[in-house]
Amino acid sequence: MINSNVAELLKSEGLLLQEVTLKGWVRTFRSNRFIALNDGTTINNIQCVIDFENTDETTLKRITTGAALCIKGTLAASQGKGQSVEIQVSEIEILGDSNPDEYPIQPKKHSFEFLRENAHLRVRTNTFSAVMRVRSKLSFAVHQYFQERDFNYVNTPIVTSSDAEGAGEIFKVTTFKDNEAPLNEDGKIDHSKDFFGKETNLTVSGQLEAETFAMALGKAYTFGPTFRAENSNTTRHLAEFWMIEPEVAFMDLDGNMDLAEDFIKYVINYVLDKCADDLAFLDQRLTQEEKSKPQAQRSEMSLLDKLKFVVDNNFKRVSYTEAIDILRNSKPNKKKKFQFPINEWGADLQSEHERFLVEKHFKCPVILFDYPADIKAFYMRLNDDGKTVRAMDVLFPGIGEIVGGSQREERYDVLADKMKTLGIEEELWWYLDLRKFGTAVHSGFGLGFERLVQFTTGMSNIRDVIPFPRTPQNADF
């Protein structure tokens, strides 16, 4: 008797006529004879055929959608369409019942909003099982890429006293009880009496700490949870999400762009190879979803086309200044089709502009570089022109920016002046120390993991690519 799983059995015609044991959950049960069983190892179900005339009626009634079963039987060539093998059942055990009157995930079309309200069960559906398997493989590919290239994985703090992005949209961490926080002479909360002795928050980025490791070990990367208290209920924002942040010593902006392009192509190629069935299903799902949209809003590329578009094309490198000229002179801008018109240099590009550059103008992924200093973070290296910084963003079809990075400011005096202007030189004294003791050119980037999963799976809402989304007014499960 061979203990196996659905994925293995569907590929194993060599095991025909062998006795097998399989455990899984019922997706459907029809004609009191055919069980579609799934164990999570693949998007596909295996058909298990019961001799219902010789099966106890009480057992048959307990075979309902969602029930957990142990099936024993013979692997046989399938008589039906859609699969090469099936199991002729000789013995069946109900491991866990599922009341069909109460089980919310029935074999019918559920809205994604309904499934978010049942996030503890939604991964039992085809769409979410496929998304989460792809997410798992992408996560493994991230680590494999960096480990194969001698990067050191560093776990940066979740509780921190710094706001790396300076946006102020942070979750505060405190042990003070409601309305019992001590006040200082100015009537403000006295954080010196709090647990950490200072004001602390959940991290928005591990970049600054990762730089300390890069400047000692050469190459480092973080891959962990980050948090933003942005009161945004959009399809692109989460309050808790995962970030991939490599940092490399002795690497300039050109090397940073090379790294980002190589990394993205590697992880997408990995899932194209390892998740073919899931991606084929998600590709079909997206095609059906697109048909419900007005013609003008439909994507010109299928999901698989978009993925191959990224891995098969060299990323076009364009300066911000050149991109502004292209956008200013573009038909959508001249005809006032952009929601945010481009009138002058210094504008902060929106998703519609980024997508125009990728999808309409260059027709390939784009890396923009040398952005205006005023719209970028303090740690980015100032160019000799005094008005742009060595920043770069990677732009993708359908999504716009997916990666943001830069060559870091390695000059002590320049960085100290920036930090003093922002009033953060005392809090981040240790960050300045990196420029005092053995400074060197170094670079890195940040990639929101959920954005990558969203792009790879074709899901339109970022809440559907993380197991339990955290958004304004929503912290269930």
UniProtKB/TrEMBL annotation:
CDD domains: AsxRS_core, EcAsnRS_like_N. It comes from the Bacteria. The keyword Protein biosynthesis applies. Keywords: Aminoacyl-tRNA synthetase, ATP-binding, Cytoplasm, Ligase, Nucleotide-binding, Protein biosynthesis. Its EC number is 6.1.1.22. InterPro entries: Aa-tRNA-synt_II, aa-tRNA-synth_II, aa-tRNA-synth_II/BPL/LPL, Asn-tRNA-ligase, Asp/Asn-tRNA-synth_IIb, NA-bd_OB-fold, NA-bd_OB_tRNA. It is an enzyme of class 6 (ligase). It catalyses: tRNA(Asn) + L-asparagine + ATP = L-asparaginyl-tRNA(Asn) + AMP + diphosphate + H(+). GO terms for molecular function: ligase activity. PANTHER family: ASPARAGINE--TRNA LIGASE, MITOCHONDRIAL-RELATED, ASPARTYL/LYSYL-TRNA SYNTHETASE. HAMAP family: Asn_tRNA_synth. Homodimer. This is Asparagine--tRNA ligase. It comes from Polaribacter sejongensis.
